[in-house]
């Protein structure tokens, strides 16, 4: 969790919107990694091959320990405090007052610093054009009242669009005490949910191969402002994977 | 800018049969979305549905007939040149050997009612040789028909009401994505999900219970579960008394499957079997969905009967959220195309389709001299492919109609470019949801492409046959194929998919079964009369099973399953698909790999007496030990050619194929 940012652009964002920022959400229990989101984005935005604004990562693909494979559909999170914007030396990347992290390709010098800075590898280099490209949240579709192409195409409705989230933090209107209370409430809820999930597994307990041995059910996954991934299952999986196997590196 | 949105339907051989809304701008398809008017597939299509944007205007799409030169290369020729030569050959072959020396093979690459128009050529030709049966699913269809009298099931959306879902040999997260969404919704409401599958898949990942039996032992597992259910009094005695036939012999049959024996056959823990049996029987409502996977071996029909009887044994039929789900054919209500010339006096001959390779080579009186393939890629998809290729070598004329240069097209004498689904109107039925859908024409075919309708018409003209079946208005032709009393449905179909079956959403709600006895047939005399099997669903070990003699030489069991990125050999050539497609690998259990000196990424040779195929090794601890897996659906030359290894057995009922009954050995290549 980042403190108040000294970055005037982001600080300005806080003052201007007070509503949080737009972003995607992904329900891991629903995502089967089918790739429809990737292709829908490609078609909608007429991306040439080699350029992709969305990817599907597979976590624990070898099913180590008998645990499940998770699929992570990842694109730009339009972070509250975007490392790509900070890394961009030409001012081509901007965090707009609407929360959108946008790229002015006319100003882009093709240095690819943003690509290196982004914890999600979201900016994608167009070799032919010699400039970066990235997700713009299908703002043309949003203007028509529809959702981004990747969200609209998701056949299991795992991928969602949030016009605004993280608002309570971005608004900066709450003091530390309120935030601490909220965090505690969230933690209590998470514990209750986990207890319920454990109960759901109870009938099959003790039988080899039943249930999820990591004890971690797929949960709701949103990248935090600043890029921290908050999720029990993720940490457990990461511990399980150890140094072996491939998983996305924890960007925190 | 000229922009319009056209309602149409995906005609691929797939459960979902999605309704689609296609956006066309200036004559080019720019966007494909799900048709919200189809309640089963709702607002989205899958990855493959989206990929039509690329597929329809793909640079590799064929737009000119091709002819094989003496050196084996294919060259472009005009339609007139190609059709004149084909007609000359067909004419000579009929004169010398009769019409049965020609094979007409129509696959399931694209579904539509217009396929019946081929008769308008072959009937006046005098008949033709055709395959019978099906590579995919007939054992399960016949088993369901023998048990319940018809193939239908609850409306898919009722899956949401289920509180216990048992998927058996089925992987909807990859092959029936809209069913998967409904299962997820049921799970979110508290449903328990159990899966029977020797592999770990995206479906088993979400399951609460996952049983991994030896492939081909599903019949024994079902009988063993039934034994537990009856022994513990969890069966529905009232339902059996009022609505079942032949329960006594069935009870005797299952009494031979106590837990210890079932456990030793299936390779599962006794406790696993007991838990699943209890959980299923107590589930309320509980839905049993059988996939095609468990009926691709020799004794598949009997196994499917045993599994299909579990919902009846426990009284779970006629209930929203319950029931037996295999195939729903209630949209299959269309008549043949109008004005077809009579088939009276024509000669017919057929062979079981899984025996294509042997039939091409060995049919006599007359031997096959020519073959016409459409909507099919048998050189990729047929078992025992080497025999198929040998069969091709002996033919004087092979014609292949396709959009792309497939493995089969590469071996043809003439390749005729095929239309895409957007280029001709048709009516499309489904086998999961009950909706009939209108495939509206979206675009004209590209220059150089003729529809199959036009191709048959051209052949008829050259032979001097009547062309009246082809000359009527296309929409009037479709109207004439609608069931009686629904002739005006065509207008409605422009606006939405329609269920014309009048059967309701809950299958067998009234417990009136379409069997000869009107009851669920636990004992089926028809099964014995038609197929020579026991009247009860007895279990027999598969000839290529784990305890067969072959297992000593070939200790591994090969499964060749399907996944989300392709429908068999289609779609694998598209960049947009290849970007997200997972590599085609040999999945092997770590212990099986270690004992053979195989490591991740090594190239392995999979072989048996029928042939061999190569694939990169992927160590997969999620597989049952002793089972290996390679995805079927070879599309591009780098894909593993697994059907060089699979066998051409025939299932005990329905004339199906036995792809998953395949013993092999694996070694470093």
Structural class of chain A: alpha+beta
| Fraction of helical residues of chain B | 25-40%
Tell me the radius of gyration of chain A.
19 Å
| Assigned CATH architecture of chain A | 2-Layer Sandwich
Structural class based on helices, strands and sheet pairing of chain B: alpha/beta
Beta-strand segment tally of chain B: 26
Strand residue content of chain A = 15-25%
Let me know the number of strands of chain A. Answer: 9
Describe the global form of chain A.
Answer: globular
Strand order of the largest sheet of chain B: 5-4-17-16-15-6
The largest sheet of chain A, given as strand count, sense and whether it forms a barrel, is: 3 strands, antiparallel
CATH 2nd-level architecture of the largest domain in chain B: 3-Layer(aba) Sandwich
Number of continuous helical runs of chain B: 25
CATH class of the largest domain in chain B: Alpha Beta
Average of per-residue pLDDT values of chain A: 72
Point out poorly predicted stretches of chain B: none
Main sheet specs of chain B:
6 strands, mixed
Shape, principal axes of CA atoms of chain B: globular
Measure the end-to-end span of chain A: 9 Å
């Amino acid at each position: 969790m980042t403190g108040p940012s000294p970055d005037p652009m982001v600080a300005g964002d806080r003052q201007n919107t007070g509503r949080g920022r737009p972003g995607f959400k992904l329900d891991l229990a629903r995502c089967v990694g089918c790739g429809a989101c990737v292709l829908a984005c490609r078609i909608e935005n007429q991306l040439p091959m080699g350029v992709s604004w969305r990817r599907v990562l597979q976590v624990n693909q070898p099913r180590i320990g008998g645990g499940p494979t998770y699929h992570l559909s990842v694109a730009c999170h339009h972070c509250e405090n975007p490392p790509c914007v900070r890394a961009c030396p030409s001012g081509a990347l901007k965090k707009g007052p609407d929360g959108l992290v946008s790229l002015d390709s006319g100003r882009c010098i093709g240095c690819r610093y943003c690509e290196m800075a982004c914890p999600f590898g979201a900016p994608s280099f167009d070799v032919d054009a010699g400039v970066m490209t990235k997700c713009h949240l299908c703002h043309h579709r949003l203007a028509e009242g529809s959702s981004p192409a990747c969200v609209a195409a998701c056949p299991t409705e795992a991928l969602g669009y949030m016009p605004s989230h993280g608002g309570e933090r971005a608004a900066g209107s709450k003091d530390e005490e309120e935030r601490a209370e909220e965090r505690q409430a969230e933690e209590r809820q998470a514990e209750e949910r986990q207890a319920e999930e454990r109960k759901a597994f109870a009938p099959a307990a003790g039988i080899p191969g039943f249930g999820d041995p990591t004890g971690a059910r797929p949960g709701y996954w949103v990248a935090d402002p600043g890029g921290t991934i908050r999720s029990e299952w993720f940490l457990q999986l990461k511990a399980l994977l150890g140094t072996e196997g491939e998983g996305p590196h924890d960007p925190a | 800018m000229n922009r319009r949105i056209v309602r149409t339907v995906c005609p691929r051989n797939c459960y979902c049969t999605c309704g689609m809304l296609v956006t066309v701008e200036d004559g080019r398809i720019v966007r494909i979305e799900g048709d919200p008017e189809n309640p089963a597939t709702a607002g989205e299509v899958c990855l493959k549905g989206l990929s039509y944007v690329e597929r329809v205007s793909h640079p590799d799409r064929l737009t000119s007939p091709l002819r094989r030169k003496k050196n084996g290369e294919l060259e472009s020729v005009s339609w007139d040149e190609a059709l004149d030569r084909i007609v000359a050959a067909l004419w000579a072959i009929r004169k010398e050997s009769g019409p049965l020396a020609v094979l007409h093979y129509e696959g399931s690459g694209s579904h539509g009612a217009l396929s019946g128009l081929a008769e308008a050529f072959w009937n006046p030709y005098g008949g033709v040789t055709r395959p019978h049966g099906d590579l995919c699913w007939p054992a399960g269809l016949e088993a369901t028909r023998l048990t319940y009298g018809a193939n239908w099931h609850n409306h898919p959306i009722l899956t949401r009401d289920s509180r216990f879902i048992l998927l058996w040999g089925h992987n909807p997260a990859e092959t029936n994505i809209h069913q998967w969404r409904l299962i997820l919704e049921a799970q979110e409401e508290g449903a328990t999900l159990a899966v029977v599958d020797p592999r770990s898949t995206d479906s088993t990942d979400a399951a609460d219970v996952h049983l991994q039996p030896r492939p081909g032992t599903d019949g024994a597992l079902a009988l063993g579960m039934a034994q537990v259910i009856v022994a513990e009094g969890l069966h529905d005695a009232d339902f059996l008394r009022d609505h079942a036939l032949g329960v006594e012999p069935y009870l005797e049959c299952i009494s031979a499957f106590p837990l210890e024996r079932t456990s030793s056959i299936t390779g599962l823990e006794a406790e696993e079997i007991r838990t699943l049996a209890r959980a299923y029987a107590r589930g309320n409502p509980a839905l049993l969905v059988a996939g095609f996977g468990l009926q691709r071996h020799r004794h598949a029909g009997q196994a499917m009967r045993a599994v299909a009887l579990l919902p009846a044994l426990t009284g779970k039929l006629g209930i929203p959220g319950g029931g037996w789900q295999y195939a729903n054919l209630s949209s299959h209500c269309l008549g043949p195309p109008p004005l077809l010339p009579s088939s009276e006096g024509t000669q017919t001959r057929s062979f079981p389709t899984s025996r294509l390779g042997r039939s091409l080579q060995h049919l006599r009186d007359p031997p096959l001299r020519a073959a016409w393939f459409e909507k099919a890629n048998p050189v990729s998809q047929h078992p025992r492919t080497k025999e198929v290729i040998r069969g091709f070598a002996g033919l004087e004329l092979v014609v292949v109609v396709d959009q792309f240069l497939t493995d089969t097209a590469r071996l043809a004498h003439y390749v005729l470019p095929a239309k895409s689904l957007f280029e001709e109107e048709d009516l499309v039925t489904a086998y999961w949801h009950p909706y009939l859908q209108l495939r509206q024409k979206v675009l004209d075919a590209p220059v150089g492409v003729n529809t199959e309708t036009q191709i048959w018409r051209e052949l008829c003209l050259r032979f001097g046959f009547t062309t009246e079946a082809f000359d009527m208005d296309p929409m009037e032709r479709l109207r004439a194929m609608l069931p009686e009393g629904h002739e005006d449905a065509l207008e409605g179909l422009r606006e939405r998919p329609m269920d014309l079956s009048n059967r309701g959403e809950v299958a067998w709600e009234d417990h009136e079964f379409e069997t000869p006895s009107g009851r669920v047939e636990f004992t089926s005399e028809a099964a014995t009369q038609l197929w020579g099997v026991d009247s009860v669903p007895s279990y027999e070990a598969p000839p290529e099973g784990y305890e067969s003699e072959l297992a000593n030489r070939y200790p591994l069991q090969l499964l060749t399953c399907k996944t989300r990125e392709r429908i068999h050999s289609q779609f694998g050539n598209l960049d947009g698909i290849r970007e997200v497609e997972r590599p085609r690998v040999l999945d092997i259990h770590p212990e099986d790999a270690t004992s053979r000196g195989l490591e991740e990424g090594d190239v392995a040779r999979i072989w048996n007496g029928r042939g061999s195929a190569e694939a990169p090794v992927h160590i997969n601890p999620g597989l049952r030990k002793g089972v290996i897996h390679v995805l079927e659906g070879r599309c591009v030359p780098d894909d593993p050619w697994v059907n060089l290894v699979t066998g051409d057995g025939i299932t005990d009922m329905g004339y199906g194929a036995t792809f998953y009954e395949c013993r092999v050995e694996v070694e470093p290549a």
